[in-house]
């Protein structure tokens, strides 16, 4: 093959590499992993908010439990003193009886408040359980999808590596200056640096070149490069 024909082979390898790299970058599994990750982040925000609410209620519940215990202990101590025989004065006994009743009444009030807080906390605990189950399912889905993604990436990486070797071997048969010119044109044109001229149509941009320009291109001396006036790629007559 001539240098330009060999360059067309390099172009085919480069286009295959472009396709493989694009395929790797746009694997549906990658989008799924990202989507699940976004859902996990949103779930974690929700869980953190509900967890904070649950912790606040748990703190209130513990404070009320501590207070109820303290009141119960005070009531027991007052009641023990009331019936111990240590107090003989009727007035003191009456005051002590009043204290016991007030402590027991206050204890019941605090225990009722504690029960109310528990009732508020229970549905949040259930909600957190559901969120935890959902998170576990999402984590499993992400892990499985990531595994599928890893397999496909390895397959494509192998195909890319093999194609790159073949591309480099093809480029090795072409003059370096011509390869450099082709790569410059390819970068500028967005992927196509050389194309065959079929009739008056450039196969790179698929636009028609004026007949006068085609005649001029075909009369170019051997060794001189011809370019498409539309896309700028090297033309192979």
Terminus-to-terminus distance? 14 Å
In the sheet with the most strands, the strands line up as 2-1-4-3
Largest sheet: 4 strands, mixed
Strand composition percent: 5-15%
User: Which whole number gives the mean pLDDT?
Assistant: 92
Query: How big is the Rg?
Result: 41 Å
| Structural class by helix and strand composition | mainly alpha
Overall geometric form: rod-shaped
Count of distinct strands: 4
Tell me about this structure.
There is one protein chain. With 237 residues, the chain is mainly alpha-helical. 77% of the residues lie in helices and 5% in strands. It has helices at 3-25, 28-82, 90-171, 176-189, 211-218, and strands spanning 194-198, 201-202, 226-227, 234-236. A 4-stranded mixed beta sheet has the order 2-1-4-3. Helix 1 packs antiparallel against helix 3 (90-171) and helix 2 packs antiparallel against helix 3 (90-171). The radius of gyration is 41 Å and the shape is rod-shaped. The mean pLDDT is 92.
């Amino acid at each position: 093959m001539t240098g330009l024909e060999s360059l067309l082979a390099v172009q085919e390898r480069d286009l295959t590499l472009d396709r493989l790299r694009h395929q790797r970058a746009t694997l549906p599994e990658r989008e799924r992993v990202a989507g699940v990750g976004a859902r996990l982040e949103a779930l974690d925000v929700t869980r953190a908010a509900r967890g904070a609410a649950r912790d606040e209620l748990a703190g209130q519940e513990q404070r009320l439990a501590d207070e109820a215990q303290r009141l119960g202990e005070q009531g027991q101590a007052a009641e023990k003193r009331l019936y111990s025989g240590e107090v003989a004065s009727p007035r003191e006994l009456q005051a002590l009886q009043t204290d016991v009743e007030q402590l027991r009444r206050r204890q019941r009030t605090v225990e009722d408040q504690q029960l109310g807080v528990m009732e508020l906390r229970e549905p949040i605990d259930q909600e957190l359980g559901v969120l935890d189950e959902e998170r576990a399912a999402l984590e499993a889905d992400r892990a499985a999808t990531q595994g599928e993604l890893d397999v496909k990436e390895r397959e494509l990486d192998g195909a890319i590596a093999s194609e790159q070797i073949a591309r480099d071997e093809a480029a090795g048969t072409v003059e370096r200056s011509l390869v450099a010119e082709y790569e410059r044109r390819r970068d500028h044109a967005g992927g196509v640096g050389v194309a065959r001229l079929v009739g008056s149509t450039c196969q790179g941009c698929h636009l028609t070149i004026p007949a006068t320009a085609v005649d001029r291109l075909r009369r170019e001396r051997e060794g001189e490069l011809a370019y498409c006036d539309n896309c700028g790629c090297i033309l192979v007559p």
